[in-house]
Amino acid sequence: MTLLDERSAGETPPAEPPPHRRQPTGILRWATSSDHKVVGAAYMVTSIGFYLIGGLMGEAMRAQLAVPDNKLIDNGAYNQLFTLHGTIMLLFFLGSFAFGVANFIIPLQIGARDMAFQRLNQVSYWLYLSGGLVVLSGAFTENGAANFGWFAYTPLSDGIRSPGVGGDLWIAGVSLVGVSGILSAVNFITTMITMRAKGMTMFRLPIFCWNMLIVSVLILLTFPVLTAAGVMLYADRQFGGHIFDATVINGVSGVPVLWQQLFWFFGHPEVYILILPYFGIVTEVISAFSRKPVFAYKGFVFATITIGALSVAVWAHHMYATGVVLLPFFSALTMLIAVPTGVKFFNWCGTMIGGRLSFTASMHFAIGFLLCFVIGGVTGVMLASPSLDLQLTDTYFVVAHFHYVLFGGGVFALFAGIYYWYPKFTGKKLHEGWGKLQFWLQFVGFNMTFFVQHLLGMQGMPRRTASYTAADGDLFRYLNLVSSIGALILGASTLPFLWNVYRTWRRGEVVGRNPWDAGTLEWWAPSPPPIGNFDRALPPIRSERPVWDAEHPGHEALAEQRHGTGRADGVVGASASKGGGS
Amino acid sequence: MNEQLAPIEPATGIPTESKVFYALGTFAVVIDIIYVLASIPGGIEWSGTVSLAATAVFSLFFGYFLQRSIRRVQADVEDVEARVESGELAEDAPEALYLPETSIWPLGIGVGAGLTFAGLGFGWWFALPGVAILVHSAIGFAHQSRERGRD
User: Fold this and answer.
1) Do A520 and A109 meet the contact criterion of CB atoms below 8 Å apart?
2) Do B118 and B107 contact (CB within 8 A), yes or no?
3) Quick one: which of A402, A566, A310 has its CA closest to B30?
């Protein structure tokens, strides 16, 4: 992509970092800095905050369901709880945390000084935060927060069946977060397309960047649909529109199921928007801790593009039970998605095979991700079959399925990313022992909570019900109790993490540039990186692991370099002796 | 030392960036045709058909836009960065990449938009100050970039 000659590392002494004006400190720095790392950290901290709020809501629901005929939470409050739990976790936590990581890591990984549109980046963050707060503020209104489920099906969500301010605030807040997502997506695409360092071709981009690129494209394709549907719903609620209203007026009527079509045209790609960044994070983690380039790099990229393409054509598999969708079409395409996802499992396993594995806390989480996500994937294929789905839809089987995908996939990979990049974020390493304790608590708690929900669902327990009776039988009682105890362990697993962060802040081990001996460009910068990111010339970029090439000269002869597509196109590792290490 | 390095070949052909969008767009065209054909017996389902068509148009348009412009933009950015690095161009020169360090206006836009949208639920007395803050911040945002390098 470049016509210019380049300097190799160490040849020219690094230019003096340009003099910068004084940055404000403290809260003012967080509020005004347009540095991509500050915005990224703000995103991450905020979304972890939302995670804790949403997690407590989940704990409350499990407490209510622990025993039959429980009166802990009344039905109305329960409806609000699962609505907010879903909205927070899907829209304000998982995707937003990925945005935070992307904001922090993408410019570093492509060798850029910052994002392409810095202040737009800040705007995204503030719109995200205010959108989240607008939705949550509904909880303090007379009728409480939105209570129609996170997918807000009409006619339940119209003005007659869900009156009150909470629903309007939900639409407003979700639209704000949607706008924030679109702005971020534009920013990521522009950054990755125009700001790459010399020699960083598209097929040398780290996998995390590739996945964020596809995620950004999906956001641009689908978030406008959600916002448009939100405007229509608001018009129905406030201005007497009849878009989603089945009442016949003058011989014509609106179409309630249109909401589902539009919502899921956003909602299904949204699932991939949530999970693809975490595929990227896990790939980076596994590659770094296997000491190998990603196995079949191009295959991985094509699998990601395929998932992105297929994801826009499967929306109605959430709507089998409506009876108005093309079952063979959506069933076939949904099952096809298992193919590129399976390719990724080959990539991850192939990266680990023959590598020198080190089982750090981060790698624990990455392997936990593989185990849990494969279960979520398999149940996904099961649910793609209409004959099974018609039996299982809106039961706890579906709840178990998507928690295996989004918690077992998303959150495990999220913590893998936190433990992996924490040294880069802060310059200090999180404690490995506490991290492994957190992993085992989380792994046991998670599987205990959600595996039994498969069985509950097959026994017919419907989702979104606030209670069940003793007459439902012993199986309901015991499985729900197991699930609730698991939820307690899962919640407790957050405590070692919070303690670990506090402990690291007070007396964490200070580390250098590249504590994991990883290969992508962010490890070339100091930890934490200064404004402008790189304090020395970049290494020559001739593979997708430029830092590895620079710090391990001559290593390209090793077997995995020959077999992986990470094979350098040119001779790698020149002048590493001058530039390497920290 | 440098002779060990393979030179960077100038890129030719359709940029990879466009190919990604072309791939998505082509897929959407194909799948939209299949979707329409499959749904003809039961009546065409318009929301999905239109959404897929919009997906195709967006992707193909953007792929073509990138194909036309991306090489030039990338060369420009690299040229500017190289001139800044060599000291030929001051970092806050008008031609240089604009990387402002601090800005209060995005916070204002966030607060303003938040209040405005909360007004959708709470009423106009919430939206009014929101719109004021939003407009003021947007103006400040625009002025900041116009007046760069002058402070």
Assistant:
1) yes
2) no
3) A310
Task: Report which of B131, B45, B117, B54 is spatially closest to residue A231, judged by C-alpha positions.
Answer: B117
- How many residues are listed for chain B in this entry? 151
The answer to whether the Cβ–Cβ distance between B4 and A138 falls below 8 Å is no
Amino acid at A266: F
> Which domains does chain A show, CATH number per domain?
35-244+252-579 (1.20.210.10)
Identify which of A200, A128, A51 has the alpha carbon closest to the alpha carbon of residue A520: A200
Does residue A572 have a pLDDT over 60? no
Q: Which B positions 64-83 lie with beta carbon below 8 A of chain A?
A: 66, 70-71, 73-75, 77-79, 82
Of residues B42, B74, B109, nearest to A194 (C-beta): B74
Higher pLDDT, B134 or A6: B134
Mutation choice for A interface testing from B34, B40, B78, B81 by most A CBs within 10 A: B78
Query: Does residue A256 have a cis bond before it (omega within 30 degrees)?
Result: no
Residue A18 has pLDDT above 60, yes or no: no
Tokens read off for A30 = 């967080």
Binding-face residues of A in 28-87 toward B, CB within 8 A: 31-35
> What is the pLDDT at residue A397?
96
Are A14 and A8 within 8 A, CB to CB?
A: no
What per-residue confidence (pLDDT) applies to B93? 74
Q: Compute chain A's Rg from CA coordinates.
A: 24
Return the closest-CA partner of residue A398 out of A230, A309, A281, A271: A271
At residue A34, φ and ψ (nearest 5 deg) are -100, 10
Rounded Cα distance, A417 and A424, in Å: 11
- A312, closest residue in chain B (CA to CA): B52
Give this complex's ipTM.
0.92
Instruction: Compute chain B's Rg from CA coordinates.
Output: 24
Q: In the beta sheet, which residues pair with residue A462? A: A395
Are the beta carbons of A21 and B101 separated by less than 8 Å?
yes
Q: What is the pLDDT of residue B4?
A: 55
Rama region for A247: left / alpha / beta (φ>0; ψ in -120 to 50; rest): beta
Residue A487, amino acid: A
Give how far A127 is from chain B: nearest CA, Å: 5
> A49 exposed, middle or buried (CB, 10 Å; 0-12, 13-18, 19+)?
middle
Of B58, B71, B114, nearest to A133 by CB-CB distance is B114
